Amino acid sequence: MNANCDCNCCTGVGDETPASVANRPGLPALTYRVGTWAQFRASMVDALSSTGRLVTLKTRSDDDFTIALVDAFAVVCDILTFYSERSANEHYLGTATDPVSVQELAKLVGYQLAPGVAASVPLALTLQTPPPAVPGAAPSGQQAVLTPPRVQVATGLQAQSVPVAGGQPVTYETIAPIEARASWNALKVRTRNALASTAANAGAGHLRLAGLVGAVQAGDWLLVVVTDSSGQQTGGVSRVSQVSLDTATQTTVVQFDNGGPAPALAPDPSAAAPALSGTLGDAALSTAVKGVVWSDQADLVAQARKLQWPVQQLEDNINALNAATDPAAGIQVFRLGVRAALFGNNAPAYASLPNFTPIGATSGGATSVLPNWDKPAATVQSDLGLWNGPSGWLSLDQVYPALVVGGWVVLQAPELSGPVAVPISATAQRSRTGYMLASKVTLIELGNAITTVGSNASIGSSAASTIGGVVSIFGSAVSAAAGFALRSKISQVLPSQISQVSPIQLGQSGQAASPYGNLALRTAIVLGSTDSYDIAAEVVTDNLSGSTITLACAQLGLQVGQQIALTGAASDQSGRIVSEVRTIASLALVDGYTQIGLNLQLTHSYAPATVAINANVASATEGATKSEILGSGSGAATWQRFTLKQPPLTYVSASTPSGTASTLTVRVNGAAWSEVPWLVEQGPSARVFTTFIDASGNTVVEFGDGVDGGARLPSGTNNVTATYRQGIGSEGNVAAGRISTLLTRPAGLQSVINPVAATGGGDPETLDSARLNAPIRVRALDRIVTLEDVGDFARASAAIAKAQAVWAWDGRRQVACVTVAGAQGAALDPASTPFANLLAAMLAASDGTIPIALCTYVPRVFTVGATLTVDPSLDADAVVDAAKCALRAAFGFDARSFMQPVYASEVIAVLQNVPGVIALTLDALDTPGSASVSATSPSAGDALIAKPPQLSGGALAGAELLTIDTGPLPAVVHT
Fold first, then answer.
1. Distance between CA atoms of 905 and 898, rounded to whole angstroms?
2. pTM for this predicted structure
């Protein structure tokens, strides 16, 4: 006790307890201990020197009983303060670590930890296709049972996923019944358009012929004859430049060298739908659907049923009528396979004939030369006038059996402005002499010429031999009566009967005709048709996009609200096969083809020929149905509890403030009781129960006390049963095509597939998430009044990992645009069930004063290039790996916010704080697919900007989220 004391009794002098307790805001844990074992022991030992009878205690040795007792109490105090500190931490939401603490604290503000949510996915079903009926065979009842054309798929159809390596299969169940049809397995979109019967199509740059036509080759001439609605005909003569056989469509594409436009398509139907009457006949059907627009297909079905027309027969008849309709009515195509000349084209040169004697007909005092076939005046007119041939016929140079009535010839000569197309009215074969020639030839009677369009290219001609000057005979002519002339026959001049010497009108009696008397014998070319071909409908080349789809047939059984799965080669994805699921918003029947209006525009554009639509789509969610006996009720017991034996309980996406709904149904003595959030103030007779999740993750069902917390259970043996679904979480978010195993298979059902990935699955809420979400729920209070409420409401919904609301312009007005992201950065499909449920819940909670737009976020990744200088005493590769991990942690999905920019200074700071990094140079900060901030050496102030919500393609797109590329970072190197 003094300077001369050497008993060590003053050791520990100083009162160290209670220690000061102070905590600044925002700490992850509270300091609440007023002392530790050492502090308590020191304080008590110090007190020995001033405590009554213990003043004389001189020893402080650990083996002394008093000191040992002090030490024991110090241990007790240490334990008490340790647990008091833990208890204090468990009383605050921000510092609690025990799940029960967080759960109970959240309950104080009416918040319950989200139990997770099941993934949602559309399942596309494929039915077995019934074999075609054998004509004359009796229908087989057994076959109809094995492969029914329609299958009623009940709720609860189970399908299972194929697990990835190391994973477990996930079971899904359909949540609504559907009617599936074999004819809906793979509906095709309309890829053919009928051609218009317009004159312009006679000069089209290409045409598609029905079938695979091998006879048409490059260099051939084709005649296209178009007859319009008034009966007016127009012809086009074009040379083939290229021929392509399209085996996929079984057609032949013929390209012309005329430089003409693409064929004009038939105009869209515009006639209003008539009222149906009478019986189901072809005439009535054609009037009712062809060229007619039924804006609502259901109106046609309703009228048909009123008239007792079988709807399936009506559909079959419409499709048969579509198949029988000529896609190019009024358009004919002929191959000009005959190339002929006029009789006399190869006559010897007129001037070379011996005993040349001009002949002619008298005209005043002079006689004009007529039969000189080498003069311009010696034409077809002369030929027709110099022999007794039928009037209006052409004499060809030889026999052409291929030229028949109904065919066409095309006349080409320098004297004509272009090719002239003329139908063949009649043909004959005659022996012909003249021009020093004799031959058996084909005579053709020409019909009425038609207007030609298209190529001005010459079909071909040869040079003509002519005699210069005008040859006339003056003086006294041979006596000849009117109508007579002379012709040369080597050494004699004989009178000969001639026909009318004037331009010959070739055509049908009583119709306007074109004069062919000006065709020169040597230069005129005659092309004749040998084959005719049917025109095929023009193939649609425009990509399928937007929100309207026209099927290749009539499908009267489709319903508004029905889901369809579209699969095809996406033109904007380099032809990659992708699928989209949409809901039918409207159905029309246009010209006999069903036209589908979608609830949302297609995300991609597709090559129409590759598209297949499955209309047998059923909505499904993760989880398998289970049934079990919970136990026996006792009327004497209060607050009875039962634990579900097969956790986890499935919660599905719903349009509720929490975003989920339980699948649990509890029955007592066979009657279903209702689930409520809590039992307080439920009354003594309310048949209700509540559920909670215990510390082990099991679902506990609790019943009332019969006083104020709901009714007690009635006494009975095993009278409490439960039906629920088992399975929940992000493991249900399987990729497209992974669900392919049917666990239940109704008769006729062949296979199942998920055309798109399952989405919306979320794991039970973590403590960190609950700490954030519990206050959010208090702020939102399940209603939306302000802009902040919009974001808070969305963030509190199940399976939503991030949400942010900002004002944005949607093209018409300012809206509260809330951008959302799913668990682990999943982008919610606007066509998915979770997305639709969240939007419905937000609209229901809003007072209508704030227009709301819900958008999924736009992910963008960036890459980093850096050179690190590493501490030479450390493993350089390990330091580089740590740097990459630090970048992923700092710039991953969980650490970033929508519209948050990435500064170069942030990247530098993260890398510089990695242990072992002495120095670094930031070489690049880049977003692939867009302009870099800096390709080399970005400065610390440079930044990558994440865009806010904005209009894109006429629709509002969500905000961007910048995250680092999760792949390797090869640009991070060490020196």
1. 19
2. 0.77
